[in-house]
Amino acid sequence: MEVIATRPQSFTQTPFTYCPGCLHGVAHRLIAEAVDEFGLINKMTGVAPVGCSVFAYKFFNFDMAQAAHGRAPAVATGMKRARPDMHVFTYQGDGDLAAIGTAEIIHAANRGEHISVFFVNNAIYGMTGGQMAPTTLPEMKTTTSPYGRKTDDIGFPIRVCELLSSLVAPYYIERVSLLSPADIIKAKKAVNKAIQYNKEGRGFTFVEFISTCPTNWGIDPIKSREWAKENMLPFFKPGCFRDKGEGVES
Predict the structure, then answer these.
(1) Domain boundaries, the chain
(2) I need a surface site. Which of 101, 130, 170, 231 has the fewest CB within 10 A?
(3) What CATH number does the domain located at 24-243 have?
């Protein structure tokens, strides 16, 4: 029998502990496959902060560091500047990156730090109890917005790719979806490009994953993907916002 898919070498043997239907595992695999394909397993370091993403250190088979909530880009900056021979990425959720970590991500991007950032957007705080995040959609109910997000009071969701693409320094910025097999194939290309540019020392690269949180949304995994397609994708439209390697400028 021909083997066409195996567990990436960049994974440990630890089974995923994420909730049923969570797409963190898909995002993890895309990153692990890219690290393998570019031969970086012994030259890669990841940084994960507080939140569901913190468990990444259990699953990736290379050095991982935990940062305080929101501070992953600052820690990654220090790592890369101290060890320019290493390749560094952060793996962050929306409650982390777009709330307490807003300053860190904006200034790391603005400096053009030579790191890759993988950003999981599921429109809610996951680990801490389903609170409203900066990416929570208008009228979306959460534990801290039980009557729905009111934009006249709380404001609109933050579109991080669009925000970062207003800066001059970032080299590559793309938003992808993990909601279908076809989307995952496109997402793999984006992750590979981010890691390739990282390996080549091109500068700051950023990939946003549109994902789900069935547990905190209170719906089953299949319906959660349909809900995300109908509600998240119209607001957070997938696409490439910046690719200096391909001459794409937003």
Answers:
(1) 24-243
(2) 231
(3) 3.40.50.970
